[in-house]
Amino acid sequence: MKIEEDEIVMPGDKLGIIEQYLPGEGTYDDDGDIKSSVLGNVKINQKMKVISVVSDAKPALLKVGDIIYGQITDIKPQRANVNIECIKDNARPLALPYMGAIHISQAKKDYLEKLSDAFRIGDIIQAKVVKITGDNVDLGSTDDDCGVLKAMCTRCRDYMHTTQKADELQCNTCNRKEKRKVSKNYIND
Ligand SMILES: [Zn+2]
């Protein structure tokens, strides 16, 4: 089987032998076999006899306005820290492990007395990127589709479901009620 230009290969796929080509970017020499080290497209420089694999899975960069999914890692009086897992509708991995924060004034449209009435550690949330300053990513969850997507009861750690009341969740097991800034996309299963 001959490898063709632009063919998509997986890490570990054999591309040829060392007598045919020089191993280029995205490849390695495995005891005389040239194999791909990345998922990407094969590029063959016929003049130089170099075979390479170019990965086009460029990492995603966050920008203002992006909708993200993340998890609450800490609640401070003024800000909830968020581990940003991925950008909505973007399958690419993030370039960096991003941390973001929701300031108490950006959590809800209405006045919020304390942040623990909107989020708790471990909550899965949707939020919007409102500002990026260097490494600091400010998030907001005032939109209806933003807020908590999935939360666990702080008493028994079972999942909770939405109730008739806005921004209230109830435990599936112990029936405890807790306040959250609930997204309209909350997952009730
Ligand atoms: Zn419970």
TrEMBL record:
<dbReference type="InterPro" id="IPR025721">
    <property type="entry name" value="Exosome_cplx_N_dom"/>
</dbReference>
<dbReference type="GO" id="GO:0006396">
    <property type="term" value="P:RNA processing"/>
</dbReference>
<feature type="domain" description="S1 motif">
    <location>
        <begin position="65"/>
        <end position="142"/>
    </location>
</feature>
<keyword id="KW-0963">Cytoplasm</keyword>
<keyword id="KW-0271">Exosome</keyword>
<dbReference type="InterPro" id="IPR030850">
    <property type="entry name" value="Exosome_Csl4_arc"/>
</dbReference>
<dbReference type="GO" id="GO:0008270">
    <property type="term" value="F:zinc ion binding"/>
</dbReference>
<dbReference type="InterPro" id="IPR012340">
    <property type="entry name" value="NA-bd_OB-fold"/>
</dbReference>
<feature type="binding site">
    <location>
        <position position="156"/>
    </location>
    <ligand>
        <name>Zn(2+)</name>
    </ligand>
</feature>
<keyword id="KW-0862">Zinc</keyword>
<dbReference type="Pfam" id="PF14382">
    <property type="entry name" value="ECR1_N"/>
</dbReference>
<feature type="binding site">
    <location>
        <position position="174"/>
    </location>
    <ligand>
        <name>Zn(2+)</name>
    </ligand>
</feature>
<dbReference type="InterPro" id="IPR039771">
    <property type="entry name" value="Csl4"/>
</dbReference>
<dbReference type="GO" id="GO:0006401">
    <property type="term" value="P:RNA catabolic process"/>
</dbReference>
<keyword id="KW-0479">Metal-binding</keyword>
<comment type="subunit">
    <text>Component of the archaeal exosome complex. Forms a trimer of Rrp4 and/or Csl4 subunits. The trimer associates with an hexameric ring-like arrangement composed of 3 Rrp41-Rrp42 heterodimers. Interacts with DnaG.</text>
</comment>
<feature type="binding site">
    <location>
        <position position="171"/>
    </location>
    <ligand>
        <name>Zn(2+)</name>
    </ligand>
</feature>
<comment type="similarity">
    <text>Belongs to the CSL4 family.</text>
</comment>
<dbReference type="GO" id="GO:0003676">
    <property type="term" value="F:nucleic acid binding"/>
</dbReference>
<comment type="function">
    <text>Non-catalytic component of the exosome, which is a complex involved in RNA degradation. Increases the RNA binding and the efficiency of RNA degradation. Helpful for the interaction of the exosome with A-poor RNAs.</text>
</comment>
<dbReference type="GO" id="GO:0005737">
    <property type="term" value="C:cytoplasm"/>
</dbReference>
<feature type="binding site">
    <location>
        <position position="153"/>
    </location>
    <ligand>
        <name>Zn(2+)</name>
    </ligand>
</feature>
<dbReference type="InterPro" id="IPR003029">
    <property type="entry name" value="S1_domain"/>
</dbReference>
<dbReference type="GO" id="GO:0000178">
    <property type="term" value="C:exosome (RNase complex)"/>
</dbReference>
<protein>
    <recommendedName>
        <fullName>Exosome complex component Csl4</fullName>
    </recommendedName>
</protein>
